[in-house]
Amino acid sequence: MAYPWLGSWSRQFTYQHFVYDFVQDVASPVFLALLGLLGLYGYAVLRGVRRAEFGLVACLLLAVAVEPGSLGIREYRFSFEHLQSWPLLAIGVVELLIGVIQRRSQPALIGATSLSLAVGLLVGESAMSVFKATLTYHLVVLSMVAIGLTFRDELASRIRKASAAALVLSVLVAVVTGLRHSMSGLPLVGYVVLMSAIAAVCWVIARERHFLIAAVVNLSIGLCGSIVLGWRLLQQLSIPPGVRPLFWAVLCFSAGVLISALKGGLAARWLPHRVTADLEGPEPLPDDETS
After folding, report:
1. Which of 93, 144, 181, 244 lies 20 to 30 angstroms, CA to CA, from 170?
2. Boundary residue ending a domain (151, 179, 196)
3. What is the dihedral sign for C-alpha 203, 149, 154, 152?
4. Between 24 and 183, whose confidence is greater?
5. How far is CA 113 from CA 4, 24, 26, 39, 104, in A?
6. What pLDDT shows up at residue 268?
């Protein structure tokens, strides 16, 4: 009933003139109706009505795309440039408060994701869309890491696994994109080191294997990217004919020495006992206990 263009009288000049003046001086009937729904569901949340927060979140999500000048179906045109950030900020604050008070990771994740999207929308219009998307993505990943480490329910455990995979995916995409577009090696190295350090810190805090695996995989991806980058730089240099075979011989010999050292127990000396125990798995029980 709030859409002003659904009635048969909407084609009359007097009605159209009244609607345009009303929207210009006050607001769209659709937007006013949405504000009324927000007040209704907000009051229901304060009164403790079951599942009222879902209605509140749904209305706030609609308010992201419905602004005071949105008239209705026939006049409304969706555009990313006109999206509003304040509903996402409201969702973030409300859901984070609910998650902290009830000690549940689901509303906390919704709130943190909403705040990340709101920050992405608040970035100036002059910024590139790629920068906005990259910033929003990394804020969401960091939010997942923080929530996974803060809460200890079943969903938080899944979030920790997903965040570890997201850290690896981020490094992989960054290295592949950087090598494809011939980016400078220093920013890529810094990004790989940063993501690997985040995964290592998460492993120290949570003591879960997938974070350690993520750190190792990120360093491996960075090493492969460094090799490819070094090979490109090597091809651009004018090297005498006898130096290149000598370089490959030294590289292969070093790789063979490293493999032999790892087989001889070098990893057990460098890595802590807890890490090697996690990688090797649980120790077998003695014969008397297994019997």
Report:
1. 93
2. 151
3. positive
4. 24
5. 34, 33, 32, 23, 15
6. 63
